[in-house]
Structures are given as C-alpha cells and as structure tokens.
Amino acid sequence: MDLDRECVDELKKLNLPGVEIHHQDFLQFDLSSIDCRSLKVVGNVPYQITTPIVARLFGEIGAPSPWLSKIDSVVMTVQKEVAERFVANPSNKNYSQITLLIKYFAQAEMLEVIPAESFIPEPNVTSAVVRMTPYKSPKVDCVDHKLLRQIIRAGFKQRRKMLKNNLSFLNMPESELGAMFASLKIDPMVRAERLTLDQFALIANAVAARR
C-alpha cells in the first residue's frame, strides 16, 4: 500500500504472485476490506505520521479499531526518537500518551537501530525497527476504559504539572482527590510521566467507584 505513484508502478511491473497492490492513503484505507484471517503489518513509515498510523492500527483506549483482532504483528521502521517513545518506561523523558496507548494494546520492542547512511538519500535522523505484538485483550484491569483514556490525556496535557491538578474535569474537590491517591498508595504530588498503565487504571477505577 503506497501513495507514491512511481513506487506503485514499479511494484506492479514485478508482477509478484499473491501480492495485491493498493494505491491508497493508509490513514484512509479500510483494513477490514482485506480478505484474510490475520494481518502482519510491515512498513518504512513516513516519520511525520507515525503516531497517526499507530492510532489507525490499534484504535484508542476503550475504542479498539475494527481490524485489531486480525493483526498478528506490526513491524515498522521509524525515527529512533519515536521508537524510544514507543518502548519507554515511567520516569523516562520519552514516556508519553503514545507509550501508554501501545502498552494498552501491545507488547513493543526495539529490534535494531539503523544509521542514516543506510538510506539513499541519507536522512537527517537515525532510524530504528520496532515490533509491536498485540494482546488478545488489554492486559489492564479497568472498569471504564474511556475514563482511563480521559485521565491519561489530561495527565499529559501539561506533563510538568502534578496529575491531580490536571484532573479538574472530574469536578472532585482537591481534598477528595488527595485522599483517593493516598488510598491507592500513589503519591498525591505525582506527575503523569511517573505512573504505570496499571496505576492509571487504579485511579480510573477509584474515580468510577465514586460516580
């Protein structure tokens, strides 16, 4: 699948058996239209749209894509800095919303770093190969996955602020928020970048229980 007409024309000339070529925008393509039981997604991804492509493949927390159950694996060449965000752990500067989206849906690992001189023409960035293997179902215990997504988004909206200060949309008094964090054994002064996905789920479950 490619938008580059020249690339598509060259691929068609190869006349590869069993290969279907789609001249389409991946971000608009309906993967459900592919008639197969399982999908292995492989690509050298345009760096500026890496995150939208991942979101297109997996969906959102609480709203998985219609084709997620078909995807066996995703292997992509991406900018190294992006790959580091995909596989980051809490308290790392690369830890972000996209990290948690991927952790919710899949196990991610960086397989290889590729220097710029490996490409023609040579880009101005170092690349890396990342593999993401989707789970059969999310490995997080959460009663309201859409609320979990809201809390994560709010937490990283201003990542230098304490998480509780980013949760004003919950309309909970600060004293109640502080007591809730304490009951979960989570530091009330914590920033979003220090919490695991499971800890975010604990907070979402505690909020849901108070509604």
Walk me through this protein's architecture.
This protein folds into 3 domains: 1-35, no CATH class; 37-134, Rossmann fold (3-Layer(aba) Sandwich), CATH 3.40.50; 145-209, Helicase, Ruva Protein, domain 3 (Orthogonal Bundle). Helix content is 34%, strand content 17%. The chain has 7 helices and 6 strands. The strands form 2 sheets. The protein has a 4-stranded mixed sheet. Strands 2-3 form a two-stranded antiparallel ribbon. α2 runs parallel beside α4 (97-105) and α5 packs across α7 (197-209). 26% of the residues are buried.
Concise overview:
The mean pLDDT is 92.
**Range of helix content:** 25-40%
The CATH architecture of the largest domain can be given as 3-Layer(aba) Sandwich
Report the major sheet.
Answer: 4 strands, mixed
Number of strands: 6
Which geometry do the CA atoms define? elongated
Give the N-terminus to C-terminus distance in angstroms: 46 Å
Q: Which sequence of strands runs across the widest sheet?
A: 1-4-6-5
Could you say how many structural domains there are in total? Answer: 3
- For the CA atoms, what is the radius of gyration? 20 Å
